[in-house]
Fold this protein.
Amino acid sequence: MVEPTIQNITVARVLVDGGSLINLLFTNTLDAMGIPRSELTPSDQPFHGIIPESSSKPLGKITLAVTFGQADFRTEQITFDVAKFNTTYNAILGRTALAKFMAASHYAYQLLKMPGPKGIITVQGNAKLAVQCDKRSLEMVEHTPTIAATVELPNKVSKPNKAPRPDGVTKKVSLASTNPDKIVRIGVGSLDPK
């Protein structure tokens, strides 16, 4: 959880997520920054993994100046997908932003380090705010109905849960020569070209 300067405005509650491929800015943040939605460029590429059990399409994309540091600082132009849903975060910086800043993150110490014009810039994360956002996120998830609860699904025909079985003869194959007990059975017919 960091507080970079985005378009000359200090933005709190920005999650650094090295596992995310995209950078997200939420509409509430965009509106609070006074950036008109007319500045968004169209985007129809959906993203997954943010909203449980669902994909989402961004309203558009926007490229904004993101700055880390004070006296020794670094600014990069970061492209954000703008998403219209509620979250405890104002923005999420993913791998593409970290790569552009050449930043290394250490999640245990809540540190972000990157090269700057005068040396290494160290950005200390806000651990207390991160815990508060995590708690609030859990509360939001608990009070958000799942898709299955909000959409009437057709009756499903339940099928018996059967393990797959080979049609023909099987062969035992050792997985490790040092441990003959580690074996796997494969269908012999599947190995013969016909």
